Amino acid sequence: MPKKNQPNDKPKEKTIQGKPKGKSKENAQKKTSQRNPKENPKEKTNQVKNIKDKLHPLKNEMDALITKLSQLPEEQRIDLLNYLKRKIAEASPFSHHPVDVVQWIPSEKVVANDYNPNKVAPPEMRLLHLSIKEDGYTQPIVAYYDKELDQYVIVDGFHRNRVGKEYEDIRASVKNHLPIVVINKDIKARMASTIRHNRARGTHQIQSMSQVVAELHLKGWSDKKIAEQLGMDKDEVLKLKQFAGLGDLFKNREFSKAWV
Prior knowledge:
Layout: E1 15-16, E2 19-20, H1 21-35, H2 41-69, H3 74-89, E3 103-106, E4 110-111, H4 122-135, E5 141-146, E6 151-156, H5 158-166, H6 168-173, E7 177-182, H7 187-201, H8 206-218, H9 223-230, H10 234-243
């Protein structure tokens, strides 16, 4: 006779391809979650929450630090803020860009270079003053820090420097400081950088440009390197060298018709 189910006997679960029907969906979800943790919204939310939780103590510390900073005398506060910017840059993924650290430097420590071929007419200077007056400094001055003299030698931004020193309203606004970013390059690279900045704005003078080209040549740069670093072609370099009185160095060279 067939055996009857006893009261304590549990009926067998129906299966699909040998798996319990009721658990197949749950198992599939678990496997999907294990295979693609990034695609699981709940998992992603938890990851974001964990990051925020870790940042929370740091934010509290920073808030406390800002409170202490705001109570310091102004000059001390400026010095410490510059220090903090430099230290924060050590952990920044953008530290290789000078603009990652803009420091406010006393204006008397910021000095002009002796080779900048860029000049601005009075109307443009007045417009630059108006721009800084209305919008503030939106572009820092690019400079090289001379440790021996404790000075910041301008690479680009000489006229922004002038506005900050010569116009009383701007001088008061920036508290006799100027916004500076520092590049650490030798004199040849700094000269090339100045020319690149000027040419990018379309402002340069032939006579001064020729002097820079001559200086780079005398410092050992080849025509090819000068052309590459200043964004010129070979004919421009040769013509500027000739203009600077270096014609004997290439008197047998031919120019393109563009210079004729």
